[in-house]
């Protein structure tokens, strides 16, 4: 078993070098277009019943924040308590 320590920023989602994924640029473009299509068709707003009132200063260190949307990190970035949203289909104008 190896206990090697990986350097910071070592995570490469599509690989790198000679073994780099040939579809990485297409996948990134596809995700961007999909997000644009979703944002065009739906409205998003925070669910106010789930948001706690807070006096958080944006300059506070993230580890000290107790905010309804606060951040936690690992292999990927997540919200601490979920991201409760109300999603409504946009009206066609």
Enumerate how many helices there are, as a single number. Answer: 1
Q: Which descriptor suits the 3D outline?
A: flat
How many structural domains can be distinguished in the coordinates? 1
Question: How many DSSP-defined strands?
Answer: 4
By secondary-structure content and strand pairing, the structural class works out as: alpha+beta
The profile of the biggest β sheet is: 2 strands, antiparallel
Calculate Rg over CA atoms: 19 Å
Uncertain regions spanning at least 5 consecutive residues: none
Q: Percent helix among the residues?
A: 10-25%
Distance between the termini: 61 Å
- Lateral strand order in the biggest sheet: 1-4
How much of the residues is beta strand, in percent? Answer: 15-25%
Oligomer state equals single chain
How would you spell out the order of helices and strands? Answer: HEEEE
The residue-averaged pLDDT reads 75
